[in-house]
User: Which sequence fits this backbone?
């Protein structure tokens, strides 16, 4: 087997494939990246760890068909460091030789016959703009749990109803919900899938090179292992789905409020960051909304304290409420708007953060970030 | 003759430290209600197979009975002794009363346990006279108010005062004058020193050191070579030097409860139920003290006495038994001792702080009122109707065991 390919094209393809390779493989071959030259002059690079698979297809000018398995991490490091010249890879016996300009690397190959075959791509269900999708996933994944001992909360739930996709994630302390439009292949398509949050966020971000992302779903709600696939401009990846169990979040999202505040997002972020300097991890920033201003406070009498006042546009009953400052900042970072709106009911009920002034006060925002307050002792 | 003996007659000028130790405290308290047992050997302790001696009268001690000894052995040594099971509540009440007497003398009171305390009476001299006089007054007041006796050691340092009270027991008073400390200490066996346990004693005996006097003659460099930092400490003690001050009221660093099973247990269900009982107790104590804690530890002792402890720090401080129990169970499961016979389990809360500053991150779908409120309601019911009024269903015992039916 041999092939010649442009250095930039190869480096990008190898880096993308290597992303999903396991850091600590359960069997040694899973650390490998499979390179295959097909009869019709295509190069396929693939990686798989039984959870996530990734495959890139490139067109070749020259190549001899064949398959080889080499260390993915090493190949990624090498291709990243190569000079900007065509790269040749030739398999000689049990070695793969990479040459580029005057540089030459000899890599050990791994037993390709031991490598598991990649799962087939599930049937395609529809398409979505890659930028919109990546932004929506990032907005939601920020609220997903990071604690692997609670797998149910580490996922992003994807609900598809016709041309509407709803993404939701929660770690119990906040809940992010985003609605977006897509083009289903069948207009009445319906599905529910729980996708590992970290994988989905990485995948969506890595597929913005193409204009659209194709989403493929298999055996959702069936007895078999569910799987979701994403593909875009020669890249395809599949991920095993999580147990579809998820809190009934729609009933937890309040729709009626006793007050709301509109605040400049950047000023709010800076002020929270400043007062939070005296707040330890998991301790609150206290917000007191009064008429046209909000007083931000952090710290306690025994330790350092900080206070700052910001102008707000406030409607409703005055309220004192406290939040974990990290949760508040992550929400403000996710709304993607110059103006943040916080909706309240009481100081122990969830608050909803949305971006910008709604066109119509009764409309429900595309993106809602629910945040649970911290109760201060009386 | 005891050096510096004779109670108030000795020179107590440089001796502001008092160590007050109740004589056979638990036994003496029981005898208040049972005057007919005075002068007889009496043992306080649970009669069960695994019970240990809590206290014994001096008449029983003469047979070799001492506290912490297994009951079975104590009864063999002194079969004629009257055995009284310990009654809770009574001891704490009297202990509190005794500590109150101390506090009328000086605020510098450092309780060591329910039945002993150090007092620094430096500040009380002008008002109440010399230390030996104060010591005599304490003994009088305790006897008068509670009808029990105590022994008081008066010395220039805590450690000598403690040895002095032990030397004059029971119902005694001993002043060790500041310039006669060496004379008092040196005839004592090395084991009398604080910090000399079985190991150190054996090591010292190997070096031919049997008494404190022997130890005092060994150059400090030699001791340091043999025992490291502890060697220098031993040398200082052998000359009666002890820098520690009387620290009035050390706040609780942790709150814990443990339980020795009547028989070793390997059933995880039984162990987790016991962890629940202990968690309930720890949480109730936290709430009663107005404290919350963040670090929970469990102690697991195998039947061969090997012991492990495991701890975890929570995201937020708590005083809720439900949360303490959940964490304790996780720690127990993670310790990998399921199906291993355990003799003792314990639950402890550390990293304590006042409940007033505690905050709580609310979770999605949490109820407004949670377990905390439920447990506070339990506290109130228990206060009114007694300890058995409310408890988790899994801890309710049927009124009759299967053996009674």
Assistant:
């Amino acid at each position: 087997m041999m092939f010649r390919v442009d250095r930039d094209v190869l480096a990008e393809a190898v880096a993308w494939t290597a992303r999903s390779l396991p850091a600590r493989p359960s069997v040694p071959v899973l650390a490998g990246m499979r390179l295959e030259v097909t009869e019709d002059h295509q190069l396929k690079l693939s990686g798989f760890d039984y959870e996530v698979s990734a495959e890139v297809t490139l067109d070749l000018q020259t190549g001899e068909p064949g398959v080889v398995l080499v260390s993915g991490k090493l190949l990624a490091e090498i291709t990243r460091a190569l000079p900007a010249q065509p790269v040749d890879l030739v398999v000689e016996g049990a070695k793969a030789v990479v040459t580029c300009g005057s540089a030459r690397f000899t890599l050990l190959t791994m037993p390709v016959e031991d490598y598991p075959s990649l799962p087939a791509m599930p049937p395609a269900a529809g398409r979505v703009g890659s930028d919109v999708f990546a932004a929506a996933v990032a907005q939601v994944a920020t609220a997903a749990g990071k604690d692997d001992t609670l797998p149910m909360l580490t996922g992003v739930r994807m609900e598809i109803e016709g041309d509407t996709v709803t993404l939701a994630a929660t770690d119990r302390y906040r809940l992010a919900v985003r609605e977006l439009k897509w083009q289903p292949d069948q207009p009445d398509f319906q599905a529910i899938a729980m996708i590992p949050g970290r994988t989905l966020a990485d995948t969506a971000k890595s597929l913005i090179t193409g204009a659209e992302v194709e989403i493929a779903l298999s055996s959702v709600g069936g007895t078999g292992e569910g799987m979701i696939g994403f593909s875009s401009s020669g890249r395809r990846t599949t991920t095993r789905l999580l147990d579809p169990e998820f809190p009934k979040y729609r009933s937890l999202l309040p729709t009626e409020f006793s007050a709301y505040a509109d605040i400049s997002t950047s000023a709010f972020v800076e002020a929270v960051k400043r007062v939070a300097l005296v707040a330890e991890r998991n301790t609150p920033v206290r917000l007191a909304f009064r008429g046209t201003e909000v007083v931000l406070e952090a710290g306690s009498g025994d330790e350092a304290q900080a206070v700052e006042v910001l102008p707000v546009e406030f409607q409703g009953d005055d309220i004192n409420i406290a939040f974990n400052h990290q949760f508040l900042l992550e929400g403000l970072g996710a709304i993607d708007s110059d103006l943040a709106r916080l909706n309240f009911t009481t100081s122990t009920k969830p608050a909803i953060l949305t971006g910008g002034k709604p066109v119509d006060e009764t409309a429900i925002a595309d993106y809602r970030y629910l945040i649970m307050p911290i109760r201060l002792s009386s | 003759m005891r050096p510096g003996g004779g109670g108030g007659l000795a020179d107590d000028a440089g001796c502001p430290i008092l160590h007050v130790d109740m004589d056979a405290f638990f036994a003496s308290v029981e005898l208040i209600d049972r005057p007919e047992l005075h002068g007889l050997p009496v043992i306080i302790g649970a009669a069960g197979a695994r019970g240990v001696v809590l206290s014994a009268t001096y008449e029983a001690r003469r047979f070799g009975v001492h506290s912490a000894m297994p009951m079975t052995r104590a009864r063999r040594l002194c079969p004629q002794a009257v055995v009284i099971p310990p009654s809770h509540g009574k001891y704490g009440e009297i202990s509190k009363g005794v500590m109150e007497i101390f506090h009328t003398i000086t605020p510098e009171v450092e309780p060591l346990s329910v039945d002993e305390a150090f007092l620094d009476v430096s500040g009380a001299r002008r008002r109440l006279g010399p230390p030996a006089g104060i010591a005599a007054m304490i003994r009088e007041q305790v006897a008068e108010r509670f009808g029990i006796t105590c022994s008081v050691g008066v010395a220039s340092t805590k450690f000598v005062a403690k040895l002095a009270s032990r030397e004059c027991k029971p119902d005694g008073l001993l002043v060790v004058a500041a310039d006669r400390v060496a004379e008092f200490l040196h005839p004592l066996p090395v084991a009398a020193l604080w910090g000399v346990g079985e190991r150190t004693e054996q090591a010292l005996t190997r070096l031919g050191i049997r008494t404190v006097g022997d130890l005092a003659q060994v150059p400090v460099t030699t001791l340091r070579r043999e025992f490291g930092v502890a060697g220098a400490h031993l040398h200082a003690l052998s000359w009666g030097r002890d820098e520690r001050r009387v620290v009035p009221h050390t706040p609780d660093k942790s709150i814990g409860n443990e339980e020795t099973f009547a028989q070793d247990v390997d059933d995880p269900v039984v162990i987790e139920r016991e962890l629940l009982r202990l968690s309930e107790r720890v949480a109730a104590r936290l709430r009663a003290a107005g404290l919350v804690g963040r670090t929970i530890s469990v102690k697991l002792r195998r039947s061969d006495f090997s012991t492990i402890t495991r701890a975890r720090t929570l995201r937020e401080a708590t005083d809720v038994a439900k949360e303490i129990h959940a964490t304790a169970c996780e720690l127990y499961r993670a310790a990998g001792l399921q199906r291993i016979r355990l003799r003792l389990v314990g639950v402890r809360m550390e990293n304590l702080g006042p409940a007033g500053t505690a905050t709580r991150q609310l979770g999605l779908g949490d109820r407004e009122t949670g377990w905390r409120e439920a447990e506070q309601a339990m506290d109130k019911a228990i206060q009114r109707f007694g300890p058995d009024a409310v408890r988790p269903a899994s801890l309710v015992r049927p009124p009759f065991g299967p053996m009674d039916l």
Summary: Chain A has a mean pLDDT of 91.
